[in-house]
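Quick one: structure tokens for this chain, please?
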Amino acid sequence: MTTTSAGPDPTMEAIGRAVIDGRAGDIASARQKLLSLWSEIGVTGDPLHRCSLAHYLADLYEDPAQALAWDIRAMDAAEAVTEQRVREHHADLHIAGFYPSLHLNLADNYRRLGSFEAATKHIDAAKAHVSSLPQDSYGDLIRGAVQEVAEAIAVQDRTQRASALGSTA
């Protein structure tokens, strides 16, 4: 979901910088930056900002319960994001393309917590939305992760996936 913006958005840029820190291994700094931004945005702020921030922040927690709380916030915010708002951020994005990853993360957290019924519900929703993914490396990554999590749910495997973002496995 990273392509050229339709216009400068300082909040999305700050989220992006924190994500880069986290992916470079500076988890504590990235988490602190995103939590500070969350305080500025607030629970009623721009849903695109809230969705993006919560989605990325969830990846910075190894504890599936903490990650789940942020993934629920991301999903709640996504349901408030309009197609127009997404297109204002980037002309090639569609809100439908967010849902496979959002449902995947919820499924994975529920799976790790041993709540396999909830995990199944969300992995089925992720599968239902994969047609919204682009045919590129990002789409391939999410489609592969959906399959991986579905297989783990089927055998009731609660271990953290080595391929999960933020994984130290």
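The two ends are 25 Å apart (CA to CA).
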